[in-house]
Amino acid sequence: MRERIESALQPQVFDLIDESHKHIGHEGARDGRGHYKVRIVSVAFTGKAPLARHRLVYEALGDMMQTDIHALSIEARTPDEA
């Protein structure tokens, strides 16, 4: 995840928190995919609405959303907003 997001969005700040341990027994956790929270500060988000920012993150992650990630909480801000 880190490599893909850093490559695509060139973040000034990137925090990745694995919250999978909080979801043990949850249906989505049974297949081995994790629950994550990301905080990203990037100029790539400048002038973009929240939904467009989330789409950029999903694009960067690509197939990981089907193979590695069950749930993703995104905080996407510009440097001026951070």
Automatic annotation (TrEMBL):
One short Pfam name that applies is BolA
What the entry lists under SUPFAM superfamilies is as follows: BolA-like
Q: Which InterPro entries match?
A: BolA, BolA-like_sf
Q: Which family does it belong to?
A: Belongs to the BolA/IbaG family.
Q: What is this protein called?
A: BolA family transcriptional regulator
**Source species of the chain:** Tahibacter amnicola
